[in-house]
Design brief:
The structure holds 2 protein chains of 2 kinds.
Chain A lengths: L2 H49 L5 H16 L4 E7 L2 E8 L9 E2 L3 H9 L3 E2 L12 E7 L2 E8 L11 H27 L1
Antiparallel strand pairs in A: 1-2, 1-6, 2-3, 4-5, 5-6
Helix pairs in contact in A: 1-2, 1-4, 2-4
Chain B lengths: L3 E6 L3 H11 L4 E6 L2 H11 L3 E5 L7 H10 L8 E5 L4 H9 L4 E4 L4 H17 L1
Parallel strand pairs in B: 1-2, 1-3, 3-4, 4-5
Chain lengths: 189, 127
Amino acid sequence: VSRRELGGERERLALRVRELESENRQLTARCLAAEMRQESWLAQYVSTVRLHSSLRRREVLTALEEIIASLVGCEEAALYERSADTLRPVAGFGIDACRLEVVRIGEGLIGRTAAERRVYVAPCGAGSEGAVTACVPLVLDGRLTGALALFRLLAQKPALNNGDRQLLELLSTHAAVALEASSAAGQAS
Amino acid sequence: MARKKILLVDDSRTSLFMERMVLRGEPFDLLTAEDGLQALEIAVRERPDLVLMDIVMPRMDGLSALKALRARKETQNIPVIMVTTRGEGDNVEEAFASGCSDYVTKPIDPVELLSKIGNLVAQEVVA
């Protein structure tokens, strides 16, 4: 085998190594993306089952608090329920709901998000204390029933990701259904 | 290889459900407890191969349960992974000082959890 042929073979092998390295990077990225999707679906599945596992309002609120703390990673949140053209704070998770003010629909970040019926997620997580990290309008049959405001995240959670946004979008409908069903069941009994 | 027994301890039904889902399909038999006291009873009776335990719980918290596990001859060598939630830096230090094997934070990362459990269960097999 000539020196020239050996040189050519070495170049071919070096090229193949670079191709394999590139394939490896792509596969790793796809694997990571698949893991993140799986994690997000898992959280959505667990949340759905937990929210609809009881018709007792106290249980539904506990499930909602656990989902926000353990699956989203938020330690301060509040639930608002609609009353005419306002949103009244009815439950606080990690904060006292009595400290929160009634929100007029269409005014302020929470009011506007509720009016637009679109999940809001702050681009870089919550800034100052009391700032809204995310706001989830609760919508049932196209009707606004309330809102969920997320304030401070856990220390180990710098910001919400795409998986969290998907979970919040799921909560927009499923928390609304679960809360409405528990209220109806409470009135019926 | 024999199936390993893992005891999951948390007062949050959502966290327990999530942990069960993450570990579903793995070669583990899962036991659950809702507080430290119940965990202690089950650990003594069932001798799990690993305990995954939340820190903040009613009746008996995770740190007290960890100390109690380490104090008993029949449970002192069971690996324990602590699950922490918020502002618990001191708790983590105390947990390691009390003999916990590792810790994870909420929200639980399934890949990280499986990796840590795998490491500890594998060590157990070697030992």
